[in-house]
Amino acid sequence: MNISGQLTVDDLPRVCPLLCRQTNPGYGGDQTRVVEVGGVRFGNGSPVVIAGPCAVESHEQTLAVARAVKHAGADMLRGGAYKPRTSPHDFQGMGVEGLCILRIAREETGLPIVTEVMDTRLVEQVAQYADMLQIGSRNMQNYPLLAEVGRAGKPVLLKRGMAASLGEWLGAAEYIAKQGNLNIVLCERGIKAFAAGEYSRYVLDLNVIPAVLANTFLPVIVDPSHATGVASMVEPASRAALEFGSHGLLIEVADFATGRPRCDADQAIDGKTLARIVKFAHHRHEQLLFARQAA
Amino acid sequence: MNISGQLTVDDLPRVCPLLCRQTNPGYGGDQTRVVEVGGVRFGNGSPVVIAGPCAVESHEQTLAVARAVKHAGADMLRGGAYKPRTSPHDFQGMGVEGLCILRIAREETGLPIVTEVMDTRLVEQVAQYADMLQIGSRNMQNYPLLAEVGRAGKPVLLKRGMAASLGEWLGAAEYIAKQGNLNIVLCERGIKAFAAGEYSRYVLDLNVIPAVLANTFLPVIVDPSHATGVASMVEPASRAALEFGSHGLLIEVADFATGRPRCDADQAIDGKTLARIVKFAHHRHEQLLFARQAA
Amino acid sequence: MNISGQLTVDDLPRVCPLLCRQTNPGYGGDQTRVVEVGGVRFGNGSPVVIAGPCAVESHEQTLAVARAVKHAGADMLRGGAYKPRTSPHDFQGMGVEGLCILRIAREETGLPIVTEVMDTRLVEQVAQYADMLQIGSRNMQNYPLLAEVGRAGKPVLLKRGMAASLGEWLGAAEYIAKQGNLNIVLCERGIKAFAAGEYSRYVLDLNVIPAVLANTFLPVIVDPSHATGVASMVEPASRAALEFGSHGLLIEVADFATGRPRCDADQAIDGKTLARIVKFAHHRHEQLLFARQAA
Amino acid sequence: MNISGQLTVDDLPRVCPLLCRQTNPGYGGDQTRVVEVGGVRFGNGSPVVIAGPCAVESHEQTLAVARAVKHAGADMLRGGAYKPRTSPHDFQGMGVEGLCILRIAREETGLPIVTEVMDTRLVEQVAQYADMLQIGSRNMQNYPLLAEVGRAGKPVLLKRGMAASLGEWLGAAEYIAKQGNLNIVLCERGIKAFAAGEYSRYVLDLNVIPAVLANTFLPVIVDPSHATGVASMVEPASRAALEFGSHGLLIEVADFATGRPRCDADQAIDGKTLARIVKFAHHRHEQLLFARQAA
Fold first, then answer.
1. Would the pTM count as exceeding 0.95?
2. What is the ipTM of this complex?
3. C15-294 CATH
4. Contact predicate C64/C79, CB 8 Å
5. What number of other Cβ atoms are within 10 A of residue D294's Cβ?
6. How far apart are CA B202 and CA B191, in angstroms?
7. Would you list the domain boundaries of chain A?
8. Chain A residue at shortest CA distance from D225
């Protein structure tokens, strides 16, 4: 019985020769490529915390959250202007108006911005506003979009598909790399499994982090908000991700004073919790550095 | 513990009001909308068999397969001119040249053609050649693409994402419907689960067929080639799909005399096997009709 | 990265040398061992239909269902005297009293009986009443129990664990075989996957049927009741299983006139539906025989 | 469409009234029951580290590992005398001789012992040697065994089934509790999902830890060895588990100087790595205590 199309880790040198450790000995056994976004450096050792609202809903809400994110010590601002929603009748994001609001938030806070792009025809527009382009989980295998963001000259945040194998994920990244753009940061965001839905939204798959580090030189971060879907799990999931070697975090934050978010409200944390996570990230990084030097 | 974003069957009237049975009582409890493609009618009772090569690889190969498909009695021809592949270094399809070959095959055989489109910017081009536009599993939640094919004025074959829930699948179809295009045929093609990869490529989920029929008036077919990934399983899977109420089949066929296919060769059947499947489909339909009239 | 404990189909000759086709060339490429239970023959070509209540709840209920099962033309009677339930506070079955009722039902109908045993200390007792011992899905890897039923001298129905790989399932069967008992019938009953629970109880994995047939000489049947959990899906699932080469069916039936069953009522069918399934099974078998002779 | 047998978190008060927070307000909102095993206290705040060989293979190997475990500062010794193996032809453990060796190891090191029992008829025997009885993943729903260990008067370590929902897991614990034994410690050990096998043995599901803590007063620990199946992932997985609130760890250790283990060698760590994990566990606990007092 032969089965078509099954990939294993052994296929990676063929699937993603531009990104695979085996075919890129220059990165040594364990070095990570540093991806720089507006002065923020992924893969540099110090974890990068990206935080912000699920969606840009208004000027007021976005600025309030952006200030909280800045105040908490996070490194970058996230926020969706174009939102992929399960139903076309749900709020789809503010579009270009949302991008403008994000630019204002960046000007005020100085935080670089990452935002999702879903449409090849909008890559150029979004790239004018964003410091980093996000490919969402549902578009991980939207290959024309991957090629387009590869050509846009901006760093890319590539989320893992919700049922993507490691081989499929790195194959997707290779589409970006093939356009000459190696400034890619991977992002684990939870997978589908029988357990998803009973007590958490997805199953947070942290085992994939060391597997990514062993097989590619790209940095990898974790989105604990989608991977759990439960606000009270975001902080422990963030710490756990860092213990597993994640180069950063992507977190949804709300300013509950200005109102309940229109999407994914149950998984949003407040600024105070974010500040504890940022503090942990920095402190933990120093500890690990110190331990390595002592060893 | 509240969990964001979990859908159940009860959410369907909100997620897909244009397609949901509950919000469209005009279709009665069990009637299916007939979707017509070049004279072929889906949902009409008689199962539609679509067959053809995985990819259009050459004029010779495509015509040979198309003749075998016609000879076997199938209703429509499939074949990929644009192929979504896990690695960008794999064969990506012949593009517009492939579309031309498909047109020639249609002219010779008279079979209407379904072919995949992956890029919003190519929808118009592909729509000029194809009788039906296919959205592949990886693009099931590529919402700009869904809207674009919705506007193209051609019937759409919407494959289920490999980890899509029923709610996510019907939500995706609703994006097409929202553009005024209700000529949508759904296609189950196997899901990801722990068992996938040991003895079959995906897990064929036939339980979803009656669930689709109970919740929407759209026709639904099954792709036994991807759902099994094993040529010898395609025939039993086809018969099983029809027993479950599938309105048709989408099958990969090869002409091994002209050479081994460049993609998914292990799951391709030959014309003789296809002919048996077609015969079964027609015979079984008559039996069921007769049984219903007798009851 | 080495990973402990991953089995593939290639490991089967080592995992289950007593049952594996490769190590038992005497069975030819595709012959099945015939397992006989009170005159009923599994693997003999003609599909065996086992039907009956989920649990033996009373003398009246069991006899009513048994008569309906007999009347519908089924071959064997099923019914649980010992019920494995998720909570210890749920009805656990009638125990030895239930076994007595099953014996009475057998005397009246002449149908051989299969019933579940969960406790090594009760194997002897259950074996005195039953013609075939059932190992349930939750006990598929209860190895002391497998060895004990292997020694009991009765044929065994071994259900697949709800997340068991093919290798784990055949390894479990090998525990029975190692005691000198090769009278084993395998039973697929649905697996756990992300899709389970939205529209069906488990995911019916029919791809495993040809994989079983290719890798062992044991007969294999399908339980469409648990695999779907929805009464209206049981009939199509039964037909689909037979199309996939299943040697039989294990179906839950209720006599709704005598009351709603205390467990799994939503998946029980009535005698009339069972009769249609039996008729289909016989008719379909003759068709296939005829087709093979003609070929 | 009604589906039989689907549990949600809302069913817990009915499924496990003896263990559920909602039906046991005496434990407050977040208090954990302390389970004591030979002076070691689970749920007491300080994480319990249990370590030892996968299987007891010889006196020499077990004593060497036990000394390394003691030296590393762990709290308890694990080791299998009865091993559930996928094939009956694999090493099944040393049985009672293995229990004797474990007793010697306890006498020498002073470490309490946990070991698996698989057979109701051996519960009394194993209970004479062990301080804590382990129910393995494959026997999580072996209800007669659960009842028997419930009656044995020893604390129980109940591993989660590899595809068990939270409801099924707590339902299994309730079988033990129903016998009057509330000294139960739960243990997450990885689940089956599409991702299992590509880069790790199972998918480590840490989201379940806060879900357990929210729904029952029982302590819960994590087995990072089986959940990853890769030795180099055990240390990060251990730290991550503690960040998620795990009350302890169950870790496989080998003494590679005395030879490669006969089972699960790829997931065993050495004593030095274990020592780092123990140190982290203690240090982290003090930090969290301090942080809570400061807050």
1. yes
2. 0.96
3. 3.20.20.70
4. no
5. 6
6. 5
7. 15-294
8. A207
